[in-house]
Design goal:
This protein is mainly α. The protein has one domain: Four Helix Bundle (Hemerythrin (Met), subunit A) (Up-down Bundle). The chain has three helices and four strands, in the order αβααβββ. The longest helix has 70 residues, at 69-138. It is rod-shaped and about 115 Å long.
Length: 245
Amino acid sequence: AFPAEIDESDLVKESESNALFGELPKAAGQAKSYAAWKKEFGEEVYRNQKLELFKSASTGEISQVHESERDFRVRISQYGREQRDEWTAKLREKYAKKMSAIEDRIRRAEEKLQREQQQAQQQKLQTAISVGATILGAFLGRKAVSRTTIGRASTAMRGASRAMREGKEADLAEDNLEALQQQLADLEAEFKAEADAYVAKNDAMNETLETLAIRPKKTNISVRLFALAWAPFWVRGEERQQAWK
C-alpha cells in the first residue's frame, strides 16, 4: 500500500472498453470486509499519522497546512521586519535621551575649552609683553635696578604663573571634552551592538524552527469514502507503466 493524492472527482465508474482487470482478492468481494477495513483505516490514521507544522520562536508564528519551510520563512521574514522596525524605534528612543544629554554636555565643554584657550593665549601674550618690557628696562643703560624694574619683574612672574594656570585649565577642559566624546562613541557602539544582537537573534531566514507534530483525535477523523478502485496501468509485454497521475 502507498499513499496517493487522488481526488474523488478523478474516479470514474466505467473502464476503457478493452481494459483487463487483475485478480480480485476474495475478501474484496465481501461487503462486510469494507466496514472492517474502514474502521482499521481510521485506527491507522489515529495511531500513525500526524501533521507537522513549523513554529518560529522569534515571531511566535506557526506555518499553515501544506506551507513549505521556505514559504513560511519568507512570510515570517516580512512580519519579523515589521517587529524589528518597531523594536528598533523603541531602542532608539531609549538611547536618544542619554545621547542628547551627552551631546549637550559636549557643546558646553566645547564652549568652555574655547574660552579657556582664548584666556590662556591672552595671558601668555600679556606675560610676554610684561617680561619684554622688564628686560628692556633693565638694559637701557641704568647702573642699578630700580624699584620700578623690580616691580615689573614681579608682575611678569605673576603673569607667567597665571599663564601656566590658564594653560592647565585649558588642558583640563580639553581632556573633559575628549572624555565626553568617548562616552558618546561608547553609547553609540552599545546601541549598535544591541540592535545587531536583536537582528541576529530574530533572523527568520536562519533561525532554528521548532517542528510541531499534531496528532488527530478520534472524534476528528472522518473517512468520507472507503471503496474498491482499480489503478490503471499500460501493459507492454512484461512491462507495466502507470497510467494515472
